[in-house]
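Residues and backbone
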Amino acid sequence: MNIPFLEKWRRRHPTQQDRALAAAFEDDPDGVAELLSECELLRSQAAAAGLELDDSPASLAALDQLLPLWRDDPEALPWLGNDAGLYLGTVVVRTVPGASWHVWPGGSPAVRLPSGREIAVVEAGLDWAVQGVPELSQTYAEASEG
């Protein structure tokens, strides 16, 4: 549920869980990155459509071409969008030199580019899953430009 004033409050008042994710990134960034890359629901949906997600930019373009049958399932939609965002982040971190995972104060994972720009990958994934835009491949192209 999206409650604007509550989201603003959460950003100003990080919870213990938010701090725990940030601490986990500091203690074991590779382990956390591996967990974020699992994206089990997205991978199973893609596999059911005959698409293997190989953590490449081409796989993002292939995801963009899938029929959005997940929009028929309102319960799965936010989970799939979350996975899509984490998958986008995984592809960026693994293929764009200098890109890395970062945790925002509210606890949301983001990708920090070498330029210092940060991408809210989970938000991008949710937008893609719900509306179809921006395309995952487009977000990747913007991230890889510089």
Observations:
- The chain has a mean pLDDT of 86.
- The beta strands are 100-103, 109-112, 118-119.
